[in-house]
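Researcher: Here's the sequence for the chain we discussed earlier.
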Amino acid sequence: MEHSSLHMLEITLRNKCDLALEAAFGVTWFDDPTVLRDPYQQKCVQEARALLLREGKAATHSQMIAELNFGFWSSLFGRSSSHLWGTLRPIFSTGGLQRATIAQKLRDLRRLRNRIAHYEPILAQPLTALHTATLDLTSWMAAEAAAWITTHSAVAYPATPIIITDPTTGRSVFDIALNGHLPV
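Model: Thanks. This is the structure I predict for it:
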């Protein structure tokens, strides 16, 4: 499992969540206690703002979004944030998803990401299943991002499907990602 795959998932997740929350609650959604009711989330926002200010950076919207960690973004799908599910559900382009399913996949991937970031062993982890979960979550949000992961992955996972289809169109994510880049 590569860190770059998880990184692409994290970027896709944070950007999609931010767009949905901003559209529903405004640009300062992360400062609204009716949106972020969980103390952990509020603490993450405070810590991100404090870090930016310590580093002499402006705590602009885009800087704040970039500074919030994967734990924060994952927590938006936890039980304490179930009130946000109606706002966040549309970022996933596949039917039949439940908040708890997304939350569990994100928890598992956050644990893996943290193990990698802290140089802990990961060989005993179910890497094929975690890689598949990374691709599933990413493709449900952005087929192009999932295509990037598959194209740039340096590790072969024989049990992972090679061709991932966009759930809304049924087209290969590679075809979608390459549109406009190949001669006709």
